[in-house]
Design goal:
With 383 residues, the chain is α/β, with parallel strands linked by helices. The chain has 15 helices and twelve strands. The two termini are 27 Å apart. About 3% of the residues have low confidence.
């Protein structure tokens, strides 16, 4: 199962968010640095309203959503790449995850200590990014010396790694994460084997205060209609993070209130939804974050449905029909014949499989079909 590590400076709300995402109290959350030392792990179901809609069509007895893993990692401080704070542990834990959720403090509060003494989201992001870049740079510089010896001896793998390493070192030295360097597909495979921290896809979680969430959501939705002078301070912070995320990493930023999300865990779903509506928020930030991370990891979902269950199956973007069938059972892939397929949107619009068949919308797809997110499938196989 692929995993995402929740990272950030101390006291930005990482552990509170982890508890909300995993709907547990596994991570200790307190107002002092390095509250988290050993990483906490939790499996998280991916919110998917398509399951409920499909189950009504099939009268399914149960719903089984997709899942990913989240890891709560110790807070990082300036100098972590040189072992400051819990730097060495922090970096080793990041190396083990597949993607990064960087929690950024986007609220002012005299009650919650900030490790740098003031709130500045972009400075905080750059502290973390700089430490990850420095750690990668140091790792590659050491590795390059070893690779040169192997490359001179005719080792083809060493030659390929050295060529990529010599492209990455000046890029990192310029303060740019490895993921932003343009490489060929073959070079990307080589770079992946180097297990660099800054090759991991990243998304930002903008943590705002409980009393600011509704106003921030309203102002962001209004866009340019709200004058700069009228923006809530947290809205300014969030907009700055969104711009940074887009310009520097071509990624996104999700607005959450870790404190609100931790309180919603205690409420039944209907009460939680009503609470959010009262705040002027349409859905839980945690739900949006989980879905965003799922896609960030390169994962997609196809669906199966019947009387026994409606289920979301996880595949990688670009997987073809036989590989998707193999997620259910290796025999399905080995003996794949075809897949009866209809997209969720089309099926729901028509209302039933019978009507879909009458309308000629049930397609028979073969081995070269690339499965789309939201495809509803039934496989034909023979072993």
């Amino acid at each position: 199962m692929l995993s995402a590590g929740i990272v950030g400076l101390p006291n930005v709300g990482k552990s509170t968010l982890f508890n909300a995402v995993t709907r547990t109290r596994k991570a200790q959350a307190a107002n002092y640095p390095f509250c988290t030392i050993d990483p906490n792990q939790g499996v998280v179901t991916v919110p998917d309203p398509r399951l409920a809609a499909l189950s009504k069509i099939s009268n399914s007895k149960k719903l089984i959503p997709a899942a990913i893993e989240f890891v709560d990692i110790a807070g990082l401080v300036r100098g972590a790449s040189q072992g400051e704070g819990l730097g060495n542990q922090f970096l080793s834990h990041i190396r083990e995850v597949d993607a990064i959720v960087q929690v950024v403090r986007c609220f002012d509060s005299s009650d919650i200590h900030h490790v740098a003494g003031s709130v500045d989201p972009i400075r905080d992001i750059e502290v973390i990014n700089t430490e990850l870049i420095l750690a990668d740079l140091g790792s590659l510089q050491k590795r390059a010396e070893r690779l040169k010896k192997g490359a001179k001896g005719g080792d083809k793998v060493a030659q390929a790694e050295l060529a990529v390493t010599e492209k990455l070192i000046p890029h990192l030295d310029a303060g740019k994460p490895a993921i932003t360097l343009e490489l060929t597909d073959e070079e990307k495979k080589t770079a992946k084997a180097l297990t660099l921290l800054t090759t991991k896809p990243t998304i930002f979680a903008c943590n705002v205060a409980e009393d600011a969430l509704g106003e921030v959501a309203r102002q962001l939705a209004a866009g340019e209609e709200v004058a700069e002078a009228d923006l809530h301070p947290s809205t300014r912070y969030v907009k700055a993070v969104q711009a940074y995320a887009n310009d520097h990493l071509a990624t996104g930023a999700i607005v959450i209130s870790a404190q609100i999300e931790s309180e919603l865990v205690e409420l039944p779903d209907e009460e939680a939804q009503e609470y959010l509506r009262d705040l002027g928020v349409e859905e839980s930030g945690v739900g949006a974050l989980i879905r965003a991370v799922y896609h960030l990891l390169g994962l997609r979902t196809y669906l199966t449905t019947g009387e026994q269950e409606t289920r979301a199956w996880t595949i990688r973007a670009g997987d073809k029909a036989p590989a998707a069938a193999g997620v259910i059972h290796s025999d399905f892939e080995r003996g794949f014949i075809a897949a009866e397929t209809i997209h969720f949107d089309e099926l729901v619009r028509l209302g039933s499989f019978a009507k879909a068949k009458e309308a000629g919308k049930l397609r028979i797809e073969g081995k070269e079909y690339v499965v789309a997110d939201g495809d509803v499938m039934e496989f034909r196989f023979n072993v």
